[in-house]
Amino acid sequence: MTERLFADLSLARRLEKAEAHASARFVEARARVMPETSAEWREVAGAYAMFDGVDSPLTQSFGLGLFDEVEAEHLEELTGFFHDRGSAAYHETCPLALQRPPLLALLSGAGYHPVELSSVLYLELPTGVADAASNERIAVRQASETERDVWVRVTVEGWCEYPELMDYLEGIGPVMAAREDGVLFLAELEGEPIAAAALSIHGGVALLAGAATVPQARRQGAQLALLRERLRFSYQHGCDVALMCAQPGSASQRNAERQGFRIAYTRIKWELPAGTN
């Protein structure tokens, strides 16, 4: 019998490393196709700091304090990484890292303040690897390299209620095409693309991200179909756990829990605005 995965430090490190890896590959692709953005990432004391542009939601660090002890000089170096590029400094932290002294005191003492919460959910595989969704008219498949623009178009339309993300989403097409890993999926209703999602695999962890359905096609099972197909793909490619993030108490979190996902922990994002000494 496979040993059950618990929401402990070992699992947290696997989950955070998988997201950091996916983010690093995206930033590397951004640097190749858009060198004018000066996109880059750096590892400092086990934390993975991403700069994808001042307004990118990906500009932040992952794993702070989770892999190595963070000293004041490490936090100063990370802060400078962001501030030197004109961005506020952001660190998304796992509570298991904050419990390890003195990270919480370091962040608050340096002037950082919490600005956002997110639930990190996980599912042991092959749990959730089920047959296709109940709506037999919906089919899910991998997007080909020539369909990157279709994937972006569906994604942009699916997130249309978040206008602050539009510029970012509309510009990721060339980046997604240049990524060295990552798998894109499309859900079609009677042959028409209506939903899109992404998948990245690292260390046996499947990171599920980017799921969006165009407004006029919602509540027909596209999200469930995309979820199940990505879980099946992940298990077939050697993953034993799936990861996704959601706003606490959101519909996305409820839907994930209905499919068997459990909350591993709630992350806190910390900010220190640019120009802060």
Q: Determine the structural class based on helices, strands and strand pairing.
A: alpha+beta
Principal-axes geometry comes out as globular
* Count of separate structural domains: 2
Q: How helical, in percent, are the residues?
A: 25-40%
Average pLDDT over all residues: 90
If strands are numbered along the chain, what order do they take across the biggest sheet? 1-2-3-4-11-5-10-9-8-7-6
How far from one another are the termini?
54 Å
Nearest-angstrom radius of gyration?
A: 19 Å
Q: Strand fraction band? A: 25-35%
- What is the H-and-E element order? HEEEHEHHEEHHHEEEHEHE
- Tell me about the biggest sheet? 11 strands, mixed
Low-confidence residue ranges: none
Tell me the number of strands: 11
The number of distinct helices, counting runs of at least 4 residues, comes to 9
In short:
The chain has 277 residues and is an alpha+beta fold. It is built from nine helices and eleven strands.
Provide an overview of this structure.
It contains 9 helices and 11 strands. 41% of the residues are buried. A hairpin with an 8-residue loop joins strand 2 and strand 3 (60-62). The longest helix has 25 residues, at 9-33. The protein has 277 residues and is an alpha+beta fold. The radius of gyration is 19 Å and the shape is globular. The protein has helices at residues 9-33, 72-83, 95-98, 103-109, 148-158, 166-170, 173-178, 222-236, 251-258; strands at residues 40-44, 47-51, 60-62, 89-93, 113-124, 138-142, 183-189, 192-202, 205-213, 241-246, 262-272. It starts with 8 loop residues before the first helix and ends in a 5-residue tail after the last strand. The chain has an 11-stranded mixed sheet with strand order 1-2-3-4-11-5-10-9-8-7-6, with helices on both faces. It folds into 2 domains: 9-120 and 266-272, no CATH class; 138-239, Aminopeptidase, CATH 3.40.630.30.
